[in-house]
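To whoever is on call:

I kicked off a structure prediction for a single chain this morning and the downstream step that reads the tokens threw a length-mismatch warning. I double-checked the sequence; it's 59 residues and nothing unusual in it as far as I can see. Pasting both halves so you can look.
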Amino acid sequence: MQNLKNTKTIVTWAGQHTVEKNKETILTHWLHITNISDDQEQDWMWYSNRIGSDTFSKR
């Protein structure tokens, strides 16, 4: 496994292609985490995690 010690941010996406009412759409969920220094973890750990979703459709 690669050493991620110097990595500041990691992002992962997962998505699913669907067709509803003849419209192609990709529904996604994502997780974005940012490294917090050890001395700040107690106060900022949960602020370093961002979770969301997006919907992509053809116009």
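Update from on-call: the warning came from a stale cache, not from the record. Cleared it. Sanity check on the structure: The first helix runs from residue 41 to 44.
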